[in-house]
Amino acid sequence: MTDDYLDPTDSVAVPRKTAPRPASLDGKVVTLLDISKAKGDHLLDRVEELLRERTGVRTIVRKKKPTFARPAPDALRAEIVGATDVLVEGLAD
Amino acid sequence: MHDGVFFEDHGIPTATVISSEFVRAASAQATALGSGEYRTVVVAHPIQPLTREEVRALADKAFDEILARLTR
Amino acid sequence: MTDGLPVVPPTRERVARAVEACGRAADELIALVPPNFGRATVEKIAINAVMAGCRPDYLPVVIAAVEAVCDERFDLHGVSATTNSTAQLIVVNGPVREALEINCGANLFGPGWRANATIGRALRLVCVNLGGAVPGVVSMSTFAHPGRYTYCIGEWEAQNPWESLAVEHGFAPTDSTVALLAADAPITVYDQRSRTAADLCATLAGTLAVIEHHKMTHWGDTLLVLSPAHAATIAGDGWSKADVRRFLFERLQWPVRELVPGVNGGDGLPDHVLRKFADPAHDATLVPKFRAPEHIKLVVAGGTAGRFSAVVPGWTFSKGSNLVFRRIR
Q1: Cross-strand bridge partners of residue C180
Q2: How far is CA C152 from CA A89, B8, B68, C124, in A?
Q3: Is the residue at A19 inside a domain?
């Protein structure tokens, strides 16, 4: 009987890899993506200072999602993908 | 998590900073999106009642881990 | 895979009966359900509807509701992940409401009607099983509320002195529709004695003033469910729905200086709003509770014996969830 029960769920996960890492941030473009949750900007402000003090990053780009309640819009994602080496996103609480 | 998984999938090393209450949610979400090995940088919860200085102190504490997450 | 209550086993035969009743192909893709983007095919929705206890003829309503919550404007991603308490409220308009005996009268939000009990429940199961909104894992809601078991009402068009919610939003009275709101639990508003529209609306404003937080501003879609008696009092004074909305909107605004964090509560206007004022602590500029009068949505429903209304707060931060309609096919 139980064989005849249908599955209410759907698994859509396609296995994805994480990106290869550089040896250091020297000469890299770093994007700091603010998810627009209150106080996240304070965290990213400090991360930006620390990146400048302690690493050899070339450029730091600041971006902001319109709202934390949704994934970043496609246009913003595309803009970031074309123009950065690494990314820091925050702050989700 | 959707953003982090998307950027990793597009070849961009990403460090997503979350607060400790969301560790389980983030990992369940990453797994559901097919990226179970995706890992986050965790800071202490809660954030909303903190002052600017207190939030900056969280960044100081998490910075080494952010760097570690972005490089090999 | 359930809401904790027993479910009806989704046998091949029961699911096939539901799919057949809606006259659509089992493998037709209705939507991808955020945040996991599981594929809500007609058959997958039918499986969840059977589990919820739906009759086969309820399936078109469930399908329309799934379509609506998966519309980007609803932001199911945020609704399913938020620490806030929101649940998906279904408001049914049109002939299907009577045909399926969807309750729109006494005990509106309560138990007793199979359609209300199971259509809302089916949508919840879809959000968990296909969307991944597992309580305590992805759904991090602090409290949630009982509407997450089921949250489905009809509008009582015959008792409505104005246009129905659906007609007001561009549908024909002959259309059957669902309207989906990311909704907090209903708050009952007691007013037995007001005999004028202005008196009654002042009462309603008092409850609307405190939703979410008494200093919350720029709020969006929120439902005001007027009982037939309250609707009759307001309409009897010659007020239109627009008059009600304008009255409430104008009454629900406060000077910046009263909304500053630390004044009458530690929360208040967010930093990016405060920055617009040179001296917020003394600024008299009025800030409204709602972004526009149109965000106050009016529905007439509930029992005829009592003089009450209900406020159903939305979950509507500035780029958050909006009321979304779908026609039932």
Answers
A1: C90, C324
A2: 38, 40, 49, 11
A3: no
Q: What is the mean pLDDT of residues C151-163?
A: 98
Strands (E), chain C: 29-33, 38-41, 87-93, 152-154, 177-183, 187-190, 222-226, 253-255, 286-288, 296-300, 308-312, 324-327
Residue A8 lies in a domain: no
The answer, for A6 touching chain B at a CB cutoff of 8 Å, is no
Tell me which residue range forms the domain holding B20: 2-70
Per-residue pLDDT tens for A58-90? Answer: 999 999 999 888 889 999 999 999 999 999 998
In a domain, A68, yes or no: yes
Interface residue B49 vs chain A (CB under 8 A): no
Give domain limits for chain C.
12-252+289-327
Asked whether the beta carbons of C230 and C191 are under 8 A apart, the reply is yes
Total number of domains in chain B: 1
Both tokens of A62, joined, read 């600041």
How close does chain C come to A90, measured CA to CA in Å?
16
Q: How many angstroms from the chain centroid is the CA of residue C113?
A: 19
Give contacts of C266 with chain B, Cβ < 8 Å. Answer: 49
With respect to residue A6, please indicate whether it lies within any of the assigned structural domains. Answer: no
Query: What is the predicted ipTM?
Result: 0.93
- The token duo for B29 is 């979400």
The residue type of C30 is I
**Nearest residue in B to C271, CA atom:** B52
pTM, whole model, 2 decimals? 0.93
Q: Total structural domains in chain A?
A: 1
E strands, B1-72, in order: 14-19, 41-43
> What pLDDT sits at residue A93?
74
Structure tokens at A44: 């990213």
In degrees, to the nearest 5, what angle opens at C-alpha C66 toward C-alphas C64 and C69? 110
